[in-house]
Amino acid sequence: MPIISNAPSSTDAMVHRRDDHGVTTLTMNSPERFNALSEAMLQALLEALADIAEDSHVRCVVLAAEGKAFCAGHDLKQMRANPDKAYYQALFTRCSEVMQAIVHLPVPVIAKVQGIATAAGCQLVASCDLAVAARSARFAVSGINVGLFCSTPAVPLSRNISAKRAMEMLLTGEFISAEQAADWGLINRVAEDNALDEATAALTASICAKSAVAVRTGKAMFARQLSLPLDEAYAFASETMACNMLAEDVGEGIDAFIAKRPPRWQHR
Length: 268
Prior knowledge:
9 strands; globular; six-stranded mixed beta sheet; Lyase 2-enoyl-coa Hydratase, Chain  A, domain 2
């Protein structure tokens, strides 16, 4: 019975990591397969995300891809070669672990999208905290076209855009443009194709200019409050804000604001 292996994969080959002044870029490196989320790609992403989670020097993460496509979803040929329920359960569980690792990472993750992001590739975009896309980028959850409802992509998709728009994408499998994706809330910014790097760098620079304590506090708080009833969300937010107020960076930030000078963050 085929089960996905937990053995380490060649992370350096499948996912490249580059660190630059607090910005860590993870680049999926399987352009010939449109960066499909194969077993090896999923394992490589999990390993890379686990390493980043333990790295206090990382301020934000950019998830990028080599080639003409961001990510075409699962590797359909690999899936057809293993027609077994246990294999599929293990595969989708592993994919869900990657998506949740992005959500639980202590720093923001920005998807930098070119070309297509389809099915689990669209799920990957929806799972990131922020997303910047080239104007020519297109998005779809297209499993329905091969008889498969994109159930796992539906989870983050429905947490990004309205239910009716999510269902339209899930039931038709039709592509939406980068402009539509921005209008619907799936992505944040649209850049000209030749300015995608610059647009992404501008967003990372804005985040890295802020207090690391505030950014890490904010990401954790935002994710948790979404799952709470309104009264509990406010109680949790109040407690979080009270604790955040005691951080050295907050005192420095307020003093800098009053003095009309740039803040000098203690934690970078």
